[in-house]
Amino acid sequence: MRKKKKSLTEVSALGQYIPMSVHKARRVIDQIRGRSYKETLMILELMPYRACYPIFKLIYSAAANAKHNRGFEKEDLIVWKAEVNKGTTRKKLKPRARGRSYMIKRPTCHITIVLKDISSYKKTYETLDNREKYLPSNFRLKSSGAIWDKK
Q: How far apart are CA 6 and CA 32, in angstroms?
């Protein structure tokens, strides 16, 4: 496995073993991918899902990393990559009648957030109505009505 070369304009935060289903976390992540830092925080505060709080903390942590480690301004950050991977499944036994037991499975997930500094080409970003130009090529967005989903 090759190591990926780190970019000078990208900052990341990784949350591991978050006690939540991958599908529930992806439902929220798909809404914030490609948006600015401030817009992402507003969306996460107003969404009614339980998955929003750990993602909010990760976005906030990645922005703090950007400010402290690289000296980036928070206004110039966009959510460049956001991915959710399946973690391990915690298993517990629940005692039942007549000495039996039932297995309880609690899924976990790993969430990776990458923020990118766009101050070098901020003027270009503000003039374009379409934010697809700055997303990775495999995340081209297509409108299918009210929500955005991957191609």
A: 23
Amino acid identity at 56: F
User: pLDDT digit of tens for each residue in the chain (151 aa)?
Assistant: 555 667 788 999 999 999 999 999 999 999 999 999 999 999 999 999 999 999 999 999 999 999 999 999 999 899 999 999 999 999 999 999 999 999 999 999 999 999 999 887 665 545 555 555 555 555 554 545 445 444 4
Residue 32 CA to residue 137 CA, distance in Å, equals 17
Side chain identity at 40, as an amino acid letter?
Answer: T
pTM of the model: 0.74
Q: Which CATH architecture has domain 10-133?
A: Alpha-Beta Complex (3.90)
What is the C-alpha separation between 23 and 10, in angstroms, rounded?
26
Sequence-separated (6 or more) residues with CB below 8 Å from residue 130 = none
Q: Shortest CA distance to 115 belongs to which of 16, 25, 36?
A: 36
Report the chain's terminal Cα–Cα distance, integer Å: 27
